[in-house]
Request: fold
Amino acid sequence: MADFDYDVLVIGSGPGGYVAAIRAAQLGLKTACAEGRETLGGTCLNVGCIPSKAMLHASEYYDAAANGAFAKLGIKVKPELDLDTMHGQRKDAVKGLTGGIEFLFKKNKVEWLKGYGTFTGPNSVKVGDRTVTARNIVIATGSSVTPLPGVEIDQKVVVDSTGALELPKVPAHMVVIGGGVIGLELGSVWRRLGAKVTCVEFLDQILPGFDGEVRKEANKIMKKQGIEFKLGTKVTGVTVKPAPAKAGGGKATLTVEPAKGGASETIEADCVLVSIGRRPNTEGLGLDKVGLATNNRGQIDTDHDFRTSVPGVWAIGDVIPGPMLAHKAEDEGIAVAENIAGLTGIVNHDVIPSVVYTMPEIAGVGLTEEQARKKGEVKVGKFPMLANSRAKTNHEPDGFVKVVADAKTDRVLGVWCIASVAGTMIAQAAQAMEFGATSEDIAYTCHAHPTHSEALKEAAMAVTGKPIHI
Reply:
């Protein structure tokens, strides 16, 4: 048997990659992880999930202080925005967490190979100036922003999600292209800090993939918060007029028209955020050197164990089919390491929660009501947050919880909610579904009072028409 430098080499140190590397090392495998960034953690920790949450959290406090929410509680303040400090605490959060992964690599004896990995042949990868061999290679290279044809991102006037986190001042008018998770989160940050925000979405409703009722309610809530929506609208062009050298900034003119055809119009903006989705990072990997091809969506197909069609090559996270979510990648990272070690690593892709970290948060797991009805007869229970004592006390009346259950077996097929802490609440629903719970199981589980989670209990009770508080 040939000698290899490593038992496992992971290419990419995002949530999937670093978790796979740590788990493989914990299982006694000699492990390395190739990463070309200056810091570990991939998109999520460096320019995605983590820094965006830091800005969302800070902007929520600012908005509460500036626009009367604190005053309702008897707290009178006159806030002043210090954007540099707000950016500083974002960078501190990133530094602490990326440094934490480096510590975990050292603790678990995972070697960090600094550089981007490229296949040079079977079991062989070039990282920087060095070529290493590994018995098992895990592709965990994540995804990057999908470009909008004909629109150049300069990270000054026209930005992607990375640039939208780094804006040096609050734009007077931001246009967000795309009504998905990233566009709504970052658009809401700058809306709260004082920008006028217009969201242009090609589809006739925001948040594709979410439950229909949730999509409509989220749209209504965000319009009430001041975000203007142009739905069923496509962007046909963006032109940028740079500002004079000393003035800084610049202006953009967007040309838009109805998605189904019609007269075009123009929109002037100080900042344009392009957020129309993400695409797998497979370019430059040298997949052809090992005879590996991508599917028509640029993804790498795997079996249930995350094996590719090439022996010894595995893939996880955003480069394979499925939702592009950090927690999906993490679970796959644990599973692939366990499969490599000869254990049984499984991810239930039917129970992966999705969360939008706006205020209120929007979350769901399992089937939407529309998907469930296509499969058979269902019962649906709903409960409004307005009737939840904790939400009412906290002045958080927006949203609802919805439980979709099989009409015959009562098994929970999906849970969808809009609430200030929906992202935390959805974990209970996911765990219940993982155990094959019925709506009755949730309804008859004692929930602490007063908590937002009682709304899930009441929605489950509503499946059989028995909620108490409405």
